[in-house]
Design goal:
The complex is a heterodimer of chains A (107) and B (117).
Chain A: E1 4-7, E2 10-13, E3 19-25, E4 33-38, E5 45-49, E6 53-54, E7 62-67, E8 70-75, E9 85-90, E10 97-98, E11 102-106
Chain B: E1 3-7, E2 11-12, E3 18-25, E4 33-39, E5 46-52, E6 57-59, E7 67-72, E8 77-82, E9 91-98, E10 104-107, E11 111-115
Parallel strand pairs in B: 2-11
Antiparallel strand pairs in B: 1-3, 3-8, 4-5, 4-9, 5-6, 7-8, 9-10, 9-11
Classes of the chains: A mainly beta (107), B mainly beta (117).
Chain lengths: 107, 117
């Protein structure tokens, strides 16, 4: 199965700052990668699919890039509601797999 | 608005079968892919498997052999059965819709299932 490795494990930032999260795949997933946001006690929410497409209703401050094995999720200016855990997920091959998550916390 | 809701026992004894049902509203299970995902307390996400309305399934190999997923189109529900559970199966279990690109675009709120005697 494809292993997704996210870095860093924790990102400590202030509101208004830029967040850059990384996801690296153990083999190429083309652009078949998604990003999800999860807040405590809630289900994950789809943010980005096919590496760079925002899901319905997702603000423009969220953007994704990358292809092959290296991907990035960028939040251009953190809002208070953006502090959460972010997961990447690949759908290039079965089983679907997720990264271990990056926690974006308030500095 | 598509909504999913998990239901089932919150406590299961070791070696028994974990059973959960997901009720879908705002969409029909006769389209798309209907998934189960789990998350052990404080840990990451693991995809369990999906069922298509036709009954075709795809499972995580790590759980194959213990897993059954079924769909009831008349009730607009799909269900998960995981047999021979151990403490390692303790998790929040989510149901989710997989769209035509297999991304998980709608999720239930999750159901905590604890395996303990």
């Amino acid at each position: 199965e494809i292993v997704l490795t996210q870095s860093p494990a924790t990102l400590s930032l202030s509101p208004g700052e830029r967040a850059t999260l990384s996801c690296r795949a153990s083999q190429s997933v083309s652009n078949y990668l998604a990003w999800y946001q999860q807040k405590p006690g809630q289900a994950p929410r789809l943010l980005i699919y096919d590496a760079s497409n925002r899901a319905t209703g997702i603000p423009a401050r969220f953007s994704g890039s990358g292809s092959g094995t290296d991907f990035t999720l960028t939040v251009s200016s953190l809002e208070p509601e953006d502090f959460a855990v972010y997961y990447c997920q690949q759908r290039s091959s079965w089983p679907l797999t997720f990264g271990q998550g990056t926690k974006v916390e308030i500095k | 608005q598509v909504q999913l809701q998990e239901s089932g026992p919150g406590l299961v004894k070791p070696s028994e079968t974990l059973s959960l049902t997901c009720t879908v509203s705002g969409d029909s299970v006769s389209s798309f892919y209907w998934n189960w995902i789990r998350q052990p307390p404080g840990k990451g996400l693991q995809w369990i498997g999906y069922i298509y309305y036709s009954g075709s399934t795809n499972f995580n190999p790590s759980l194959r052999g213990r897993l059954t997923i079924s769909v009831d189109t008349s009730k607009n529900q799909f269900s998960l059965n995981l047999s021979s559970v151990t403490a390692a199966d303790t998790a929040v279990y989510y149901c989710a819709r997989g769209n035509w690109n297999y991304y998980l675009d709608y999720w239930g709120q999750g159901a905590l299932v604890t395996v303990s005697s």
